[in-house]
């Protein structure tokens, strides 16, 4: 559907003079038309639009026309017409250039961008004229061979705010352009009704005409005397209406001065307001003058109650707006605008505090339960002091309450065992440890199958094999922590919070030592999170708020 719109615009822009070379004056409508008969382009030109027309359907010409359309800007109505072949896949749609049929290999999802134009690009350009942009997509129902990942035709249409999209058979689109669309004085709603054979999406205004009637004959030409309209009264009324910035105020100005100096500006402002349904909500939030700290707190609260803002950075982007809408839908009684009011911010904060209390209680309960199991298993294994018991304890609780004690006792046993080992045995073991590879430990076992360090070699082989299997997941966890770009202050805060919650991280110095990693894993287990030993956004939010989940 997006491609169809682009073609309509291209036709209107290129009708006369060298393609893509016309200049656009402020307030003058423009059109770009591709693949539509020249008669349709001429009809729009006669209606007062500056038209660019191209029938070659080459993707390079379409890109050139869209670029010229975007760079010229302007504030008049905009029409884009695309008549031709479309393909969609992966949630995107492309308007295919004529060269798509000339390729030796059929374009697939990876290469379609070289022979076509993405419809999202067309709609983004149209969105620069909110309330005054019309995109028409005409499908010829013919397409060259397509490769993997692509299907013939238009995909799902997503019209931006303030953009009207009409689509249907190519012949119907051409007839609509040369017929109803070329007749000025009709609103978008009236035009959409005239094009009954076409489907409509997006913004459809029933108020302002899309293409304006030609201005009436001047009083000098008609011989009529000018009316004694007060310029001062016109300007004063406009100042009041523009400051109020509401549809009602602008209509009041137009009723008083239907042909006033600011009538066109009033109509344009009405169209812009109607093209943004959540305008009042946006302005209300802007009036709160939320600072960066307040915005971060809102994002943190959203994350705590399960609405991911995709970052806690104080910037309300698409992720945060989507999280606010999701919360508004689930909170009940609030219209999902994506913008917050002061009472909603208070309600959100109250919900986050209640969730924090709940999660804290759950975390403490889990910790007490896990600590009790830890102590019981220690009594059954490691407390006996033999190597098998110590190794069994560390195998189940590598970050347990008695992990340091168990490791220390094993080290003493190893030291004693080393002192009693034969010189050759010890030398071979030292060599294997220096290499610290599965191959080196297997060579040691072949030489000393009953050696003093045979059990340790077997254990290390098992550990290295396990580490190789988990290396990919560990790398992903490391990358997630690097993406947080933690400052020294945040690292110190994490260590303080770990210590305050009973997970000993060692010295609070901002250095994440193996002991710190163990404390993070213990916290993550208590919080019901994957125990990676590395921080991600969810772990950091829970730690800073003191709320393991």
Query: Total helix count?
Result: 22
Radius of gyration using CA atoms only: 35 Å
Helix content: 40-55%
| CATH class placement of the largest domain | Alpha Beta
Q: Give the percentage of residues in beta strands.
A: 5-15%
Q: Could you say which overall geometry the principal axes of the C-alpha atoms support?
A: elongated
Poorly predicted runs are: 1-26, 216-229
Largest sheet: 9 strands, mixed
Task: Tell me what the CATH architecture of the largest domain is.
Answer: 3-Layer(aba) Sandwich
- CATH topology heading of the largest domain: Rossmann fold
Distance between the termini: 44 Å
Count of structural domains: 5
Class computed from helices, strands and strand pairing? alpha/beta
Number of strands: 10
Describe the protein's architecture and organization:
The protein has 549 residues and is of the alpha/beta class. The chain has five domains: 2-202, Rossmann fold (3-Layer(aba) Sandwich); 231-277, no CATH class; 291-365, no CATH class; 382-473, no CATH class; 484-545, Orthogonal Bundle (Muramoyl-pentapeptide Carboxypeptidase, domain 1). The chain has helices at residues 2-13, 38-46, 59-72, 119-126, 170-178, 188-194, 219-222, 231-244, 247-256, 263-275, 279-287, 292-304, 318-331, 342-380, 387-396, 403-420, 423-435, 438-447, 454-483, 488-500, 514-527, 537-545, and strands spanning 14-15, 30-34, 50-54, 78-89, 92-96, 116-118, 133-139, 151-152, 163-169, 199-202. Strands 2, 3, 4, 5, 6, 7, 8, 9 and 10 form a nine-stranded mixed beta sheet that branches. Strand 4 (78-89) and strand 5 form a beta hairpin. Helix 2 (38-46) packs parallel to helix 5 (170-178). The longest helix has 39 residues, at 342-380. It is elongated.
